[in-house]
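From the shared-data thread, chain only:
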Amino acid sequence: MITKRIIPCLDVKNGRVVKGVNFAGLSDVSDPVALARYYSESGADELVFYDITASAEGRALFTDILREVASTIFIPLTVGGGIREVADFERVLACGADKVSVNSGAIANPALIGDAARRYGSQCVVLSVDAKRVGGRYHVFAKGGREDTGMDALDWIRRGLDAGAGEIVLNSIDTDGVKQGFDLEMLEAVCAFSNVPVIASGGAGCAQDFVTLFKAIPKVDAGLAASIFHFGEVSIASLKALLADSGITVRRV
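Structure, as tokens:
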């Protein structure tokens, strides 16, 4: 059985980890380097680092903090924010990233997915999709959830898979920060056709939400969360113990 992954997410703004609700109302949490070290030592399977305002501000991702984070941890690191061209992949990979997450940059330039996959391999290209229900459909949002593109999220993910994306991170804006559980309906719709790993993001409020996620949708490969880990509401060790006791295969701490 495939081991399920637990992935904390660092949303970084102005050099600090922040967290909000429904992608809004951001509040300061912690120093990203210290928090990354804590998660690496606490048994997290991977870590995601998002420079959440890089795309909206039209700038490149800050690499100084990224270098510090990458040199501090001993688990795979996925990095996103302000990734617009293949040269941006080169820059963040050189800083120590293992995988690169594309979102707004790929929306503006869909060829970026294929170009990067051909150069670095599909395993390096993560398509991150911020989706929200609009008029009974799932719409793709860009620039950190600020801009409704009008694109159908399921169609966009299919295009990304065809282009060579090796992993999908599905961020539900509807459930983000609400702590009422993952968006199972949206995840089910994506897992029905995805042939690459799918990471669930947005909505975790307690350890049981991960059990519900993996049991309801066995095809989901990983659960990503932020605030419940950042604020000490759930520890990685206790979460993995609960998952193992529930018959879900995890890498034990």
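The two ends are 18 Å apart (CA to CA).
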